[in-house]
Amino acid sequence: MRAARLHAVRLGPRSLAALALVSAVGVVAFGWPFLAPPASQLNAHAQDAPWLFAGLLVLLVAVVAATISESDLGPKAVAMLGVLAATGAALRPIGAGTAGIEPMFFLMVLSGRVLGPGFGFTLGSVTMFASALLTGGVGPWLPFQMLSMGWFTMGAGLLPGAVRLRGRAELLLLAAYGSLASLAYGTVMNLAGWPFLGAAASNISFDAHAAIPANLARFAAYCLATSLGWDLGRALCTVVLTLFLGPAVLRALRRATRRAAFETAVTFEAREPSPGGRGTSLSDSTTVKHPT
Predict the structure, then answer these.
(1) Rounded to 5 degrees, what angle do the CA atoms 9, 13, 16 make?
(2) Rounded Cα–Cα distance for residues 71 and 73 (Å)
(3) What contacts 225, CB < 8 A, 6 or more positions away?
(4) Which end of the chain, C or N, has fewer beta carbons within 10 A?
């Protein structure tokens, strides 16, 4: 029988509540053009919305902080979070401007799969923040990117068969999720910018006075005209990297997770003094020698 799945970050009650709150606010922040009726006062302040919703950044940082503090994140998990976030941030600019080639997405999928949804949400948010600092991409869009990437990576941790599903079936599952999530990420991020096109593209821009079906048609036209090619490239890149590099990366992540033993509590047990000096035995049978 396989061992139970290890979680580098467990989502406790406070973290779940904070995550649910941020996700609810995020849904409103992304979807307000289809939630607010044409006569709503929110539409009257459409150009101010990105700055108002940029306050999500504070909530996102609070969610990450609550997740880390409640889970009693140890130095090993912090080190793994730092390494994976730095790697993802370094991978993101590699394909910048090249038809959606963004290798970081496949790493986020595999990391979320192995390390669980709590670690996945934290990793996705931190990676996007680090990438923005690295590339100078800090702006009102950053909270939307952090939340979207957090959802993206957390979703990989929620996929079924985390303990028993292995081999080709798991790779196909991860590749399918990665392709769909890559397309979904692009579509959701389109929602963050589409309402603020103004009259420059009247046929595809958001119309505050139009009905929801009309705006849905405009949004679909906007996605087809501006981002579909990029999103398809991202999805294809994620699928190819998952299928070809996935086995090696999954093995490396699972080996590192087993060795880190995130959920193993370290305890100290007294032992009889040995002739060569005093010793203290750890719960994992490691003995630390102290000089006499």
Answers:
(1) 70
(2) 5
(3) 204
(4) N
Q: Which of 152-156, 193-197, 200-204 has the highest mean pLDDT?
A: 152-156
C-alpha to C-alpha distance for 165 and 89, rounded to whole angstroms: 29
170 and 253 co-located in one domain: yes
Buried b (16+ CB within 10 A) or exposed e, 186-223: bbbbbbbebbeeeeeeeebbbeeeeeeeebeebbeebb
Task: Show the domain range for 289.
Answer: 266-292
Residues 235, 280, single domain; the answer is: no
Please report how the helices 228-260 and 212-226 are oriented relative to each other, as an axis angle in degrees rounded to 10.
80
157 & 289 share domain: no
User: Crossing angle, helix 228-260 and helix 104-135, to 10 degrees?
Assistant: 100
Q: What is the pLDDT of residues 28-76, one digit of tens each?
A: 878 877 776 555 555 555 555 555 666 666 677 677 767 666 665 667 7
pLDDT digits over 197-211, tens only? 765 567 788 777 778
| CATH classification of the domain holding 78 | 1.10.1760.20
Q: What angle do CA 281, 253, 264 make, to 5 degrees?
A: 30
Cα→Cα distances 225→4, 201, 251, 291, Å: 46, 11, 40, 71
Q: What is the pLDDT of residues 104-151, one digit of tens each?
A: 899 999 999 998 888 888 899 889 988 888 876 777 778 888 889 999
DSSP string across 99-129 = TT--THHHHHHHHHHHHHHHHHHHHHHHHHH
pLDDT, tens digit (0-9, with 9 covering 90-100), for 235-265: 999 999 999 999 999 999 998 888 766 655 4
- Secondary structure of residue 287 in the 3-state scheme: strand
Nearest to 255 by CA among 105, 51, 115, 149: 115
Total number of domains constituting the chain:
2
